[in-house]
Design brief:
The protein is α+β, with helices and mostly antiparallel strands. The chain has a single domain, classed as Jelly Rolls (Sandwich), CATH 2.60.120.620. The protein is 28% helix and 20% strand. The chain contains eight helices and twelve strands. The strands form three sheets. It has a six-stranded antiparallel β-sheet. A hairpin with a 2-residue loop joins β7 and β8. 39% of the residues are buried.
């Protein structure tokens, strides 16, 4: 999709900086949503060999890179415009995911940060969530702890990560769904951006309806150590998919090739 970039407002930028997330309501138009839903479902059907049931879980990396239509999301004016507002000109594309269901069924996806620890806090990485089903508190909308992408709160919560595999973990003596948090309910077409240092979780009382595409971006790594952070758990950065390498759209070219020219860390 082409068009003028649609940047975030000053209020939205300040919200992301302070709280670690921002929701863009109706960022994708109705026709776009239908096309993305149909194409994502086609890929999931291909992977399962059939239509998967709502409770079957699958997570694939390199998801949008498998489809010309879905790859248009990477530099979509509304999505990239928001990312550019937060990360500047030298944005790095860090790959994508396609997810159905909830990891850890039938329990939950317990509290954690995708990137955690003091050494991770110096590099801003953003996950863009494009939900393809309506998400409510009951069926698994994302919960976040606002401000937990920054020290000292981020560091105070590091022990949460060790409890992801526990059946019924406690957090300050509370169950995960009792922990004070903000629940981000969305409808298809909404787009959610969150800092990957932010603590988040999923709990539900009804059958989970999660179907979403995630796009990942990073600010420019200023040092070899920061490039190493990008390469850790994001191999797509230095080994991008063929569709990303071959794409001739200028924004994609810049996001993919600048980091390759800088080189992988030794």
């Amino acid at each position: 999709m082409t068009g003028a970039l649609q940047p975030l407002s000053a209020d939205q930028r300040e919200c992301f900086a302070a709280l670690g997330f921002v929701r863009l309501k109706a960022a994708l138009a109705g026709e776009e949503v239908a096309e993305v839903q149909q194409e994502a479902d086609r890929l999931w059907h291909e992977d399962f060999g059939r239509d998967p049931s709502p409770i079957e879980q699958i997570m694939q990396g390199g998801f949008v890179e498998r489809s010309a239509r879905l790859f248009e999301l990477v530099d979509h004016p509304r999505i990239y415009g928001a990312v550019h507002s937060l990360l500047g000109d030298d944005v790095v594309f860090c790959g994508s995911e396609g997810n159905r269901g909830v990891a850890g069924l039938p329990v939950a996806h317990h509290w954690h940060a995708d990137r955690r620890g003091a050494h991770e806090l110096g590099l801003v990485r953003i996950k863009v969530m494009i939900y393809l089903s309506p998400m409510t508190e009951a069926n698994g909308a994302l919960r976040v702890i606002p401000g937990s992408h920054r020290a000292p709160l981020h560091l105070d919560l590091l022990a949460f990560n060790d409890r992801q595999t526990v059946d019924e973990p406690r957090y300050f003596g509370m169950r995960g769904n009792e922990l004070p948090a903000h629940i981000i309910e969305t409808t298809p077409g909404d787009v959610l951006l969150f800092n990957q240092n932010l603590y988040h979780a999923v709990y539900f009382t009804e059958e989970p309806a999660r179907r979403y595409i995630a796009l990942k971006y990073s600010e420019w790594p200023e040092s070899e150590g920061q490039r190493a952070l990008l390469g850790d758990r994001a191999a797509e950065v230095f080994s991008p998919a063929e569709r990303a390498l071959a794409c001739e759209r200028p924004l994609v070219q810049r996001m993919v090739h600048l980091i390759l020219e800088a080189g992988a860390p030794d």
